[in-house]
Amino acid sequence: MVTRSVCFLLLTVTLLMAYRTKNGRTYHDPSRYPWPNDKQEQQRQVMLHEQCLISNDGQLVCCPQERYQRVLDIGTGTGIWAMEFADKHPGATVIGVDLSPIQPQWVPLNCNFEIDNVELEWTWSGDFDFIHGRMLGGCFEDPASIFNKSFEKLKRGSYLEVADVLLIPKCDDGTLRPDSQLLRWAGLLAKAADKMGRPINPASRYEQMLAKAGFEDIKVIEAKWPSNRWAKDQKLRVLGYLNSKTLQEELEAISMALLTRGLGWGSFEVNVLCAYVRRELMNPNIHVYFPFITAYGKKP
Ligand SMILES: C[S@@+](CC[C@H](N)C(=O)[O-])C[C@H]1O[C@@H](n2cnc3c(N)ncnc32)[C@H](O)[C@@H]1O
């Protein structure tokens, strides 16, 4: 019996750690989640966390909830949000859940990490009084079902807050030409992700999804993340600098994963497209920004 349990445990650990390597990057399971999970991606997530904090004027949360007891962070990644939240709210218990075991071992005592797939049945006993999810575009076949599960698992009067950047380049002054490679790239990525069954821009429907799940007092906040340091405003310049770094970091990995698997492109074609896209992203005369959407709603 003991031997069987040990074998089962070893098998589970082996399966969890058996990342797939493609084009020099490791993935948990690229057919399920197209971003890598290696050290390079973890550094990108940490930088992205700083970007989100600057965008939100240092706040980890935007909704008006004041007290927290049991908090769930969906798709926690490196767990940086969950750990900082736990530090800030020592009276709360924070659970961070992710497919990949990439969280550190030394964590605040009130923070726990679990390896699980939130697309499957939620088996947590007891309810949460805050659920948070950030940068989850491309994760789920049916993002609305995650909102429904959150609604079920929240106590009355508690909030679900979700935040995500839209990989949709916007420009208000005509400096982005309609035939730009950046626009073409964004359209191709969205098409590939849809074809693979996991939309990368669900944030454009967050408001409707919150309402449909039953949430009330819904609010959507839209910030601008410039593509580089083209903006005059100091905060936007800093966001643009960080955004250019995080975008460059993910450009090849995500394009390769989605375009080769979703649209059958070859790696040479992808590299050529990425070279054009990188040039446009770095050009300070092209005033592109990406919308960063934060949406929250309260369970009545
Ligand atoms: C871009 S990362 C965001 C990390 C974190 N939320 C943050 O903002 O720093 C998305 C994370 O969602 C996780 N993920 C994707 N699909 C998932 C699923 N079905 N269940 C649990 N986690 C999932 C990925 O493994 C990845 O770590």
From TrEMBL:
InterPro entries: SAM-dependent_MTases_sf. SUPFAM superfamilies: S-adenosyl-L-methionine-dependent methyltransferases. It holds the Pfam family Methyltransf_23. Transmembrane segments: none annotated. Keywords: Methyltransferase, Signal, Transferase. Residues 1-18 form the signal peptide. The keyword tRNA processing does not apply. GO terms for biological process: methylation. It comes from the Eukaryota. GO terms for molecular function: methyltransferase activity. Belongs to the methyltransferase superfamily. LaeA methyltransferase family. This is S-adenosyl-L-methionine-dependent methyltransferase. It comes from Staphylotrichum tortipilum. The lineage of its organism: Eukaryota, Fungi, Dikarya, Ascomycota, Pezizomycotina.
